[in-house]
User: Fold this.
Amino acid sequence: MSESPIEALDLAALLCSRVCHDLISPVGAIVNGLEVLEEEKDEATKEFALDLIKSSAGTASKKLQFCRIAFGAAGSAGAQIDLGDAETISRGFLEDEKTKLAWNLPRALLQKNRVKLLLNMLAIAGQAIPRGGSLTVDPIGTGETMGFKVTAAGVNAKVPPAVPSLLGGETADGLDAHRIQPFYAGLLARACGVKAAIAMDGEKVVITAQ
Assistant:
């Protein structure tokens, strides 16, 4: 992998900030729900608060499972990750009443950085359809050197700002908790010896790593 233009400590700090950003909303909802349970006497309101706590705890758990693989160490150096497990945590992180995931990859073990790259590609694809839609994952090639194609389709689908240059390793405008994720995806791609790219294909956004 080519030398990163960001210090290791700054990269770690920004990735931690990104994870905190993802988790602050569901965790905050849990805290609010607990406060309602403590203060309210109305049974209907307390039941609503309990439902909110359960839902938010589930959301936080799914986000943590995704972030653990997408940004974390995910086992020892050289470890492999099951694509079936990657599918499960991706569905938990991305799918809801507005967004559906079509997973066309075979069940296989791949080197962890390659799977981490795939999850980061999916995170970017989710940002490309803020109003929901469909995400489709297809393989490029086979075996240990398999690449990926992620297609995002939805109303007003568009390439998120600065993502093409960040995937390429450019940081001219600086990095923050929002920009660090696509930049990190580019680092993972180069570590895997592939090139990551994003572009419009008609009204769809396509992200590739090959």
